[in-house]
Amino acid sequence: MFIIDDQLNISMTRGDTPTISITLTDASGNAYDCSGDQSLTFSVKEKYDEAAVIEIPITLRPVPEFTIGLADTWTKDPGDYYYDIRLITADGTIDTFIANKRFTILPEAHDLV
């Protein structure tokens, strides 16, 4: 199971492997130019002010997307964590455009075989 609610909180079953696409727009609502030397990162933390326990680079082209792999959540305890998505542009500007949203890892219904 994988759900992103209307507040951008994520709930997923531990061990699932969803691929998430992101639509980026500028302040005017126009498509954001993902060309050039810039990076996006998806990070999950146990608490807001701690180091990331999951960190996944986001592929920018042809569309921004990333996959949460089995190993990213399988060893984590079920419960609430927090995630953010951060853009670093070629000139070093940092824009955390999704910050401190809930990331809930749900227990799996069975063991992997």
Question: What are the key terms here?
Answer:
globular; mainly beta; 1 helix; 113 residues; 44% strand; 8 strands; two-stranded antiparallel ribbon; six-stranded mixed beta sheet
Give structural notes.
- The chain has 113 residues and is mainly beta.
- Helices cover 4% and strands 44% of the residues.
- It has 1 helix and 8 strands, in the order ββββββαββ.
- The strands form 2 sheets. A 6-stranded mixed beta sheet has the order 1-2-8-7-4-5, with no helix packed on it.
- The radius of gyration is 15 Å and the shape is globular.
- The relative contact order is 0.28.
What is the straight-line distance between the termini?
18 Å
Arithmetic mean of pLDDT: 91
- Low-confidence regions: none
Oligomer: single chain
Main sheet makeup: 6 strands, mixed
- Our count of helices gives 1
User: What is the H/E string?
Assistant: EEEEEEHEE
Q: What portion of residues belong to β-strands?
A: 35-45%
Largest beta sheet: strand ordering = 1-2-8-7-4-5
Helix content: under 10%
Number of strands: 8
Form type: globular
Rg, nearest Å:
15 Å
Structural class: mainly beta
